[in-house]
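Q: Convert this sequence to structure tokens.
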Amino acid sequence: MIRKCNESDLDVMYGIINDSATAYRGVIPADRSKYPYMPMEELKHEIADGILFWGYEEHGKLIAVMGIQDVVDFTLIRHAYVLTNERRKGAGGSLLKVLLEQTEKPVLIGTWAEARWAVSFYEKHGFRLVSEEEKNRLLKKYWKIPDRQVETSVVLADARYFKKYP
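A:
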């Protein structure tokens, strides 16, 4: 079952995010790595900043989360995480499909450049990488991340984006 997450899900969401983010260890730049990957205060800040999290629930247990955030011209998919032992079973793809149905705007996704599995996942679902120049512009305009993270990230966009911005 896919549903909107609520405040009572915060602890479980925190657990899913930080369990899943262990995949980044040794992959993302050491100067961007931290533990926990997303502290509780940061998660609360992201929600307060307008990210609406959805969850994939199986047998009454939340096993994956993904956020969606409307910004001026686009919709951003933010913070997509699946419990390590639940990966490759369709939860992430199912969540992405539901979130894409929530908007008519072009959709952008930012992720770590070295997280090849994440890039491949989004490409499998129809997203394509934008140019380096466009990536830098988009990340600086629509995300609130440090310059170092901009340098080490990529942006993928859906077909709606490429129709509007060929």
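The radius of gyration is 15 Å.
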